[in-house]
Each structure stands twice: as structure tokens, then as C-alpha cells.
Amino acid sequence: MAEYDLVVIGTGPGGYVCAIRASQLGMKVAVVEKRPTHGGTCLNVGCIPSKALLHASELFEEAGHGFAAMGIDVKPKLDLARMMAFKEEGVKGNVDGVAYLLKKNKIDHFHGRGRIGGAGVVDITFMNGETGRLEARSIVVATGSDVARLPGIDIDEERIISSTGALSLTTVPKRLIVVGAGVIGLELGSVWRRLGAEVEVVEFLDRILPGMDADVAKSFQRILSKQGMKFRLGTKVAAAKRKGTGLEVVVEPAAGGDAEPLAADVMLVAIGRVPYTEGLGLEEAGIALDSKRRIAVNERFETSLKGVYAIGDVIPGPMLAHKAEDEGLAVAEIIAGEAGHVNYAVIPSVVYTNPEIATVGRTEEELKAAGIAYNTGKFPFTANGRAKVNRTTEGFVKVLADRETDRVLGVHIIGAGAGEMIAEAAVLMEFSGSAEDLARTCHAHPTLTEAIKEAAMGVAKRSIHM
Fold first, then answer.
1. Can you tell me the distance from the alpha carbon of 386 to that of 447, in angstroms, rounded to the nearest whole number?
2. How far apart are CA 103 and CA 236, in angstroms?
3. CA-wise closest residue to 411 among 260, 172, 215
4. Fewest CB atoms less than 10 Å from the CB: which of 195, 238, 312, 324?
5. Mean pLDDT across the stretch 225-234?
6. Active-site residue 445, yes or no?
7. Which of 65, 341, 445, 465 is catalytic?
8. pTM of the model as a whole
């Protein structure tokens, strides 16, 4: 039996960051990870490999369709096996990096399934079947999430796949049906559309990207449709079965109506994620879960069992790696007696398609529902000099500011490089900045970020270049 100040179950972005920060604060720390490698879903089968394929497929499409207009004549040929090897190289570099950081910070690591054995106790079933026990003054559960499944439809990762299977297809499907028009479905759907698949998205709701600013989502659907992606909104999947070498997918209107069979080679189920809380001994240990089987915590990330904390996808809030990281930092500092804190009002969200979408703060719909009066500044990339010469004029920047105080309440960007640009808005909002502050900040020319300045100026109806 080993004794620690802190044991973290799960080494995804929240777990390993928590462990490192705790070690920096002088704690003796151990981590328990069920995978052979660290990094969780994000680094192994999520954020990192998907970004590798998004980047590679964007270059493939640009070489085939965008280079000629700039005087570069090439005819790209897809070598999918080498593209997948490129992806795996990136994954290995990242997971090896986390292993190095844990070693550098003198953190003990155990590979196996962790289970809460009571206050201060973590039981481990190692990969070879042996068992062990760790004792700790504090425990952090950071086990992340799993893919959500459609009732009655089995994911075999061959024909009916999850996001994990979509990252490892060995051939480009001729016809791909994506179930779910959220971030994951649209990102992975766009990868395979660029590589040659016919992609049709089936979404239960009457819009894509639920929860995001409706103006952004509407514009984005037009862009994706122009790129060749098809959409069936207000539609649900009733059944899916193998038929010959492919699939027959039965869809029907969400509001009721006649069913229709669709033929596909592969169906990607991307209807969201659920907290990974099974098999952890939570309920047996007296740790309360909510109706969605997330771990109930207070403002200090404490569960109902003294000394046990939880962060990331297993607690309420957006299932985002950077949200988990911030919570990991905060809970380590709280355990150490410091004032750890997460500002949930300023957590950016990015869709890594082409163009990208990035948002932070509230949407117009949320402000209207809350009865908050606001002003809007909006600036299109068609009026941005750098976007014009780069041929990346799709999209816009929208700034929402309190009508009385001018404090920025939300920023929404659809356009090239949006995921990088949103950090500027997040910093401003973290310091409760105003649209005037943003408008009077000098931006380098020519850059895409000038669109943010112009949108901020537009809040006071004084944009210059439109």
C-alpha cells in the first residue's frame, strides 16, 4: 500500500494538468490511467488526431482546388495510409510528451482501472489482472467521457463507427452518413468530404451546432452546403443494418412521418458524449451523481465524500479539454490551500473546420432570453484586406456589448484562423473590457484580426472599411 498527498484517476488534459500543478505545489502525487498511454481521449482518439486529419485534408483540398488560382499547378494524390501514419506520429509525440512531464515532475503513474474504495482509498486493477491499493489525503476523479450511443444501434467501428473509428478508416467511404450536426460530426464529416466521400448529415434538431449563436450556425450551414455537404435537419435515425457491403440507414422526420431508407458505406454516430462514471465505485462510496450521471460537486469541486474531488467531463459544464485543464489547475490549488478559480463565463469554444468557428461568452439568443439589452458590431471578412488577398473571405466577426456599460458579453467568429483569434476576445473579457477598449487597441495591418477591431468599432456604428 502506497501513501500520497493526491491520487488523480485519469490522465486526460484535466487529470495530468492537475497532477503536475499539485506536484509544483509540493505534493506527493500519483496518477492512475486505464490506457497504456497518457493524455486521455483528447490526445489519443480525440482533439489531437482529429486536428492532424483536419489539417492534412485541408491541405489536400487546397492543393487540388485552391493552388491553381495562385499560379501553382499540382495534382495531389491521396495516400491515406501515409496520412494516417502522419496522424499517429503526432499522437505519439503528444502522449510521449505527457509521460515526460509526469516523470519530470516526479509523479508516480500506475496503468490500470482505478476505483474509489472509500475515503482516501483508490483500488487499482492493473492491466495484467493484479490488484493494488493507494492511500491518499485527497483524490481527484478526472476520467473524462465516452461516446453517446443511439438506442438499438451497435457501434462496430467498421460500418457503424464512433469518432474513434472515424479517425482510423483504411479507405475513403463513397457515401458517409453523419448522425449529429454538432462539433464532432461536422469536423470529422468535413475531413472525409475533403478526401472524397459524399457526406450527408442527419440532425434531430432543426439547426446545426445547437447552443452556438444562431447567426453563426446559419451562415456556417450555407458554407458547408456550398462545399458539398448535405443536411437533413429535423430528422432521426430509426434503424441501421448491414446490407451487402454497405449499410441501410432508415431515417424519419423527428416530428413523425414516413420513414425513408438511405444507402451508405459508413455511418458515423456523433450525437455527443456522456460522462465516464461507470465502474468507479462512486455510488458504493457514497458519492452523489446527478440525473445525467455526472458527479455532483460544489464550487470547490468537492464531491459528497470528504477528500474526493472531480473535474472535467464527469462534472457539469461544457465537455472541453481546456475547461478540464483550468479545473485541474484550480482544484490542485484549492487542495493546497490556495484560491483556485475558474471563470466559466469566459471559456472559448472552437469548431476546427474550414472555415473555423470560435466563440466566447454569450450568444444573442442567451442575451435576449436573459432580458439583457445589448449592442451588436459585425464585420465581414470580405472587407478585410488580408482575407481578400488570401482568398479566405468567408465569415465574419460579431461583438456583443452591454448597451449600458459597453462591457463585451460575447464574441463570435466564423472565418480562417478563428480559433487563434478568439484568445484576444477572451483576454479582454477576463478583464471586463469594453467594446471601446477593443476598438481603440491598435491592430497590425494587414491581419485577419483587424476584423475584430472593426467589429468592436461597429458596436458604436463607426466601422471604417464597410
1. 5
2. 47
3. 215
4. 238
5. 98
6. yes
7. 445
8. 0.96
